[in-house]
Design goal:
The structure holds two protein chains of two kinds. Chain A is mostly helical. Chain A has helices at residues 2-19, 24-48, 56-83, 90-93, 106-133, 151-154, 161-184, 190-198, 201-213, 222-250, 257-265, 272-282, 289-297, 308-335, 340-348, 353-364, 366-382, 384-391, 403-413, 417-441, and strands spanning 136-138, 145-147. Helix content of chain A is 71%, strand content 1%. By secondary structure, chain B is an all-alpha fold. The chains are: A mainly alpha, B mainly alpha.
């Protein structure tokens, strides 16, 4: 079993690497090293035979997937770095400057040392620890831990190995197929238009496939997954749409525009917990202003504290309110670079306000939109913790328990570090996927996040 | 004169529309965005009975609430802890990132691309995703329940290193050459030439890091259990949890007080923040 897998991984990795203009052997070696490291770290038990816990088939599938992905990903990265293109940062590393200090060789290391030390101890080390913990039965405060193979992961998924392997594979194949089709067809032809129109199907397929992969029920992960996807997408959609609309309003040059900008951006400085508290007050079913307003109009104000969908909506509103300033900031900067001449020309040609916005403004700020998409998703994944904790506490009946909230509930609340770490690892993989996607789409341009 | 010009160009450009329309619309949006805060200010002055009766006039309980929040519930102390923590994070992040940016832009050394890649990779490692392991590492180092745990893990960040790096790259390439010809060393160059040219970047970074550190909630909840060491975001929960029935006034006042320092920093450093962010967006 292990042998077949190794051969398979090497072949795959060599193919991937050769596409990046790296010698297939080097790529194969790197990928193999990565794959072996992963299986030692992660999947040794599941491949060796002594699988622990239930869902042994699922654990095997997971192990194979982990080994293959890490091997191929590593080979691809090395290949891209070697080829000097593709991965972000390479273009930036070309030495453009002549005037450099060359006096003491230890000096740059001294300057970098504190940063590198902090990153190593508080980022790299915990990152590896997260994956190490995820295969353990470890309790908060207990020094010892036991190996449990991949059962922490397996219990989050449906028991069928075929579903766990098949659905994501099919989704990925769909994404790859659509991308390939779009790349092959020439722009302007009918099939290109069809391919471009179908392109969003890929990500949707991935999202849907994952829904069926996570186990249903109260102990399963499907509820958390649904809450996370729903709330995150809601926040991203609302805060980006509102951000663009407000930015479009105040990016114009008129007297007082900069004052309006400041008065719209300030919630950026408000903390997620405070946003939670403010909306907790406003939506309070008995004392809040919304209930009073509904009373005045003669409506019955439904309580978000018992209705899950309303609770999710309340979280989305509060979190978007706090974050809209961030999006306004970037959209104002982007809108001010839209060339006026093109818009004026379109206006002369008789294009109306809405047409100009949809056909000229939106496409020309697409790179910023894309960048914001990823920062907004990261915000929606993590920073909502404080808002949720003060607004709904994950309820009612877990319908606002998003991934990060569940990680803390399991890892700290019940003290089950291993299970919490396994959920962290899943979220980690999602974040890595998003970031890699962003890097590849933006072709190596570094943009500034504004988060940490 | 200039107003006229704007309007005549604006009619046909991206920014078409009459200005009074813009003012009315902008004002409405400002009110909409400001509504939660304005409402909180109103409630902060009222007793629970006044809140339930939905009075639109300010109540007279502000002083009483302030005493309750600041002294009895210890928000004052928590605010001080937050100020110290956020200031330390901001200063440490600025100094460390500037030094790293300096090394990446103005020095040639072996393994630079590797190190740079290592820093770049951390962009896809948000602290929250590894928070359980981070907690374990921190408690293994014996740092829990101390200021160290709140400051040290956040003293370095890839984004701020890149912000400085980008800013230094945008400066004229002749600067270090000229400095070297004049016999200035790297440190003199940094303090005499680079620093005065970097205030916008530093200001932007200060707003971002101060706000980020001040607004941290999850991490302090995990590592600080001692009441005297709590930061303000944590201590707000005491305003809601301790009473049998929620007293809305003190809760709102606490939320407002907890928002004052980052808002002040934002307003004070607004100019460098806006220009620093716009530059970095390229």
């Amino acid at each position: 079993m292990l042998l077949i897998l190794t051969v398979l991984a090497t072949a795959l990795v060599a193919v991937v690497a050769s596409r990046g203009r790296l010698h297939p052997l080097v790529g194969g070696a790197v990928g193999l090293a990565g794959a072996l490291a992963t299986s030692w770290f992660f999947a040794g038990c599941a491949l060796g035979g002594d699988v622990i816990g239930e869902n042994t088939g699922v654990q095997r599938v997971l192990a194979v997937a982990a080994v293959l992905t890490v091997g191929a990903g590593l080979a691809r990265t090395v290949a891209a770095v070697r080829a000097g293109g593709g991965t972000a940062g390479d273009g930036l590393l070309t030495e453009l400057r002549s005037g450099m200090f060359r006096t003491r060789s230890w000096l740059p290391w001294l300057l970098l040392a504190p940063t590198l030390l902090v990153l190593a101890v508080f980022l790299y080390h915990p990152a590896f620890q997260t994956f190490a913990l995820s295969t353990k039965l470890a309790r908060m405060g207990a020094p010892r831990s036991a190996d449990v193979c991949l059962s922490n992961f397996a219990e989050l998924l449906v028991p069928s190995p075929y579903l766990v392997a098949g659905l994501p594979l099919a989704a990925v194949a769909l994404v790859a197929g659509l991308t390939l089709w779009r790349a092959r067809t020439t722009a302007g032809t009918g099939s290109h238009t069809v391919a471009a129109a179908l392109a969003p199907l890929g990500p949707i397929a991935v999202v849907v496939a994952l829904y069926f992969v996570f186990a249903p029920g109260r102990t399963g992960y499907r509820g958390v997954y649904v809450a996370t996807v729903g709330i995150s997408l809601g926040i991203v959609a609302l805060s980006m749409a509102a951000g663009l609309a407000l930015a479009y309003l105040v990016a114009r040059r008129f007297r007082g525009a900069s004052v309006y900008r400041t008065l719209l951006i300030w919630p950026y400085a408000v903390s997620p917990p405070v946003a939670g508290i403010l909306f907790f007050m406003m939506f309070d079913p008995t004392a809040g202003v919304m209930a009073h307003l509904a009373d005045v109009v003669g409506l019955d104000f439904p309580s978000y504290r018992s209705d899950g969908v309303l609770a999710q909506a309340a979280i989305v509103l509060a979190a978007s309110w706090k974050w809209v300033g961030h999006n306004i900031l970037f959209y104002v900067a982007a809108l001010q670079t839209v060339p006026r001449e093109i818009i004026e020309a379109a206006a002369i040609d008789g294009a109306g306000q809405w047409r100009r916005f949809a056909r000229i403004v939106v496409p020309s700020i697409a790179p910023v939109t894309f960048f914001l998409l990823v920062t907004n998703l990261t915000y929606a994944f993590f920073d909502v913790y404080g808002t949720i904790d003060y607004l709904t506490r994950g309820g009612p009946s877990g319908q606002t328990t998003v991934a990060i909230y569940e990680i803390i509930r399991v890892g700290v609340g019940t003290g089950d570090l291993g299970r919490g770490a396994a959920q962290s690892a899943i979220l980690f993989i999602a974040v890595i996927g998003l970031t890699v996607w962003q890097f590849r789409r933006s072709e190596g341009r570094i943009t500034y996040g504004g988060g940490a | 004169m200039s107003d006229n010009l704007t309007i005549s160009v604006g009619r046909r450009g991206l920014f078409a529309g009459r200005t009074w329309h813009l003012h009315v619309l902008s004002l409405l949006c400002v009110l909409l965005i400001g509504f939660p805060l304005l409402y909180a200010v109103l409630v902060a002055t009222q007793t629970n009975a006044e809140v339930f009766a939905f009075r639109l006039t300010p109540g007279s309980s502000l002083g009483e609430h302030f005493h309750k929040v600041w002294v009895e519930r210890g928000i004052g102390r928590a605010m001080w802890n937050s100020v110290v923590m956020a200031t330390l994070v901001t200063v440490a992040k600025t100094v460390l990132s500037m030094a790293a940016g300096l090394a990446f832009v103005y020095f040639r050394f072996r393994g630079k691309s590797l190190v740079f890649f290592g820093v770049l990779i951390t962009l896809m490692m948000p602290t929250e995703v590894m928070i359980l392991a981070l907690f374990r590492v921190t408690s293994d180092l014996g740092m829990t329940d101390s200021l160290w745990a709140l400051v040290v893990p956040f003293a370095a960040s890839a984004t701020s290193v890149f912000l400085f790096r980008q800013h230094f790259m945008s400066l004229p390439a002749e600067l270090p050459e000229a400095a070297q010809l004049d016999g200035a060393g790297p440190f003199q160059f940094c303090f005499r030439i680079l620093l005065p040219l970097s205030w916008n970047t530093i200001g932007a970074l200060a707003v971002v890091s101060f706000t980020y550190a001040w607004n941290m909630y999850l991490w302090p909840v995990l590592v600080i259990s001692d009441a005297s060491g709590q930061v303000v975001q944590q201590s707000l929960s005491a305003l809601r949890a301790t009473d049998q029935a929620i007293s809305y006034g003190p809760l709102m006042l606490g939320a407002l007080l907890a928002s004052v320092p980052p808002l002040l920093v934002f307003l004070a450093l607004q100019k460098p923040f806006m220009s620093g962010m716009a530059i970095s967006d390229k």
